[in-house]
Amino acid sequence: MKDAVVIGAGVSGIVAAYTLKKAGFDPLVIEKEPYIGGSTHTLREDGRIIELGVQSVLGQDEFMAFTKELNLKPLHPSKEHANTRYVYLNGQLKRMPSNPIEFLTSDFFSIFGKIRLLREPFIPPKDDPKESISDFVTRRLGKEFLDKVVEPFVCGIYAGDTDKLSAKYAVRRVKALEDEYGSIIKGSMKKKALGPQGEITSFEGGLLTFLEKMASGIDISLESVALKITKKDDIYTIDTKSGKIQTKSILIATPAYSASYLLRNLTWSMSAELDQIEYAPVIVISAIVKHPLPKGFGFLIPRKENTIMLGALFSSNLFKICKEDENIITIYVGGERRKDVADWPEEKIISQVKKELKQILGIEDFEKYYFKKWKKAIPQYNIGYERFINTVKDIEKMNEGVFIAGNYI
Ligand SMILES: Cc1cc2nc3c(=O)[nH]c(=O)nc-3n(C[C@H](O)[C@H](O)[C@H](O)COP(=O)(O)OP(=O)(O)OC[C@H]3O[C@@H](n4cnc5c(N)ncnc54)[C@H](O)[C@@H]3O)c2cc1C
User: Fold this and answer.
1) Could you tell me if the CB of 226 is within 6 A of ligand 1?
2) 289 CA to centre of own chain
């Protein structure tokens, strides 16, 4: 019998297994793919580092301390690139203001938009757990701020729809400022709370290096799909493609829809509930180009521009990931707003992306490209999301020894 079994070798599963190992346990990780990483999907090819999933992480204090423990040398982009971001507005890349003064003095917002922003501290707070991001931002900061900043920004993080995403869950840090200080502007001035929470971070060899470092010394069974969990007395049996594994402790670190399937024999109705969590599709294209890239981090595209692209990162500006005479641009496509594109064939997507990139940056062709379709990429913290959080708590409470981890909790 195993001490503990972790299902899923994405970052959640690997961190959990590493922590268990450090605490003196001997966990087994089972992973359905022939590689670890989950949505951390680094390719190392021809001297290039290609990230087709997670691009970088925010180096918050706790995370940076952890990288020290792992003896990893973090990499960060220059401030100049990290702080220069664009929004594609009316057929043009516009530099996004990077501080409150610029918001008011640049021509990014109309005069009406600026006046509306200045009214924010005088708008009374409201406590509505069912409020969408669109309603919350329009109420506090105005429609122009929603359309030009928040909608594209939220799309960049969740690939989501601001009309459906819950303000309370999806932008909880910002909503908390209203709850605590009665105003986002007043709260952020008092707490300095809206700036980035850490530096953009990756590692030599890409983000997978972080997972590989933790995974060395851990017992991982690859190409091992967990199919079913059953319980007799206080022992759990996990059926996998290659046999049965018994344990008293299981950590399920798969996406919600897989967890739902795995838990069906332990708790039918609650596991069915987890399957209701919506995921937005995202297509990631990492293109090698000879064309120079503007300085900066990348750009986002508001819904109104009607593109299939959600935005792009100027990846080779951020980290040294390719040869001197080439650049890498990472393009995001689809999301909630263009779910249909996830069913398009690759050639059709590439052809449309090239048309859009030509218009936006003048890039006409790729030297080479890497392509990955994530049909269920990012869980959507839509209105009413607390019901899923409660379901997870109930599943854990009713099944002693079962734990659930992941980015949907
Ligand atoms: C395209 C994309 C880009 C992103 N970019 C960023 C970014 O730049 N920065 C950031 O902070 N976050 C980003 N995210 C979000 C981030 O990837 C996730 O929050 C995080 O990686 C989730 O990790 P996880 O371990 O919880 O799940 P996953 O990475 O999904 O790992 C789950 C693992 O479980 C395995 N599995 C599933 N079912 C079974 C089964 N039955 N048996 C065995 N194994 C199973 C899967 O194969 C997978 O390896 C991005 C996500 C995507 C999809």
Assistant:
1) yes
2) 25
